[in-house]
């Protein structure tokens, strides 16, 4: 338990979900890409083994006391298991350089067996990391897995530019590809749910910055709804995040049946609260660049206060977080400032006079 808290993260989150007494609002920032820094590792070192993946997350929790460890199956995990190639930077997120699928009409080359845990080293690594994190933390903190949604999974197999073009030129085959990805995600996520992991479902290529609402409703919504239903049926908890401007999509996103809705920093929390706050717990949304990477401690305090001002009274609850994953160059001191402000403004019972 962190020295500045009165409950363990597991106790806090469990009570929060059951509407029981807590010491403060849960704080679940996306300390994913940056996590190795807390353990003195580069990003390549962090992603090199299950032990390092767990070590990085546990180092974050030891220093910051954040309420969710997040292991990175990743946005490209499905594509890479099927043959997509990526580069291997020392201290950055790998980028895709060659795609597993060159012809959308040739889906028979995709082999679902390659995505099974016994055949996928990345799946094995993250599965073990989840287990190690639970064991080494004595289950004092929940563990999550960041994984792509169906549309972004498809973009890890078939180049994004061509995938977006196929919405007009070859929608039938694109639907088949997204359906394949949905079935793969069901298989993968169910294994993580079975060992207690929260699913952080992230679908950045489905962003409202990229897709129109009708495109989202045709190519994303039905598949995500199907996936989430399957996971909820086995008692999975799913936090759903789409990067960018989802202002026009939040009602659709909530209709998927997700457990929590994570909001990017470019979306207004208060407006989202008025649209869907009576249906779902909101998560968000301090700016990863403006505040975490470039801001001062005073600016961070103000940003966290603004989030609480907008969402503290959300009818279905509020969890403080970053608006998206944090860049690898974020100063650890700004992460300290974020957590300190979260404890200051999130102390229970909440005091709205502090948010004026």
Summarize the structure.
This protein has helices at 9-18, 35-38, 43-46, 50-64, 77-81, 121-136, 150-157, 160-169, 171-194, 213-219, 221-233, 250-255, 269-276, 288-293, 297-311, 332-346, and strands at residues 69-74, 85-86, 96-98, 143-148, 198-202, 238-241, 260-262, 281-286, 318-322.
Report on this model:
The chain has 356 residues and is α/β, with parallel strands linked by helices. Helices cover 47% and strands 11% of the residues. It contains 16 helices and nine strands. A seven-stranded parallel sheet has the order 1-4-5-6-7-8-9. A two-stranded antiparallel sheet has the order 2-3. Strand 6, helix 12 and strand 7 form a beta-alpha-beta unit. Helix 15 (297-311) runs parallel beside helix 16. It starts with 8 loop residues before the first helix and ends in a 10-residue tail after the last helix. The relative contact order is 0.13. The model has no long low-confidence stretch (mean pLDDT 97).
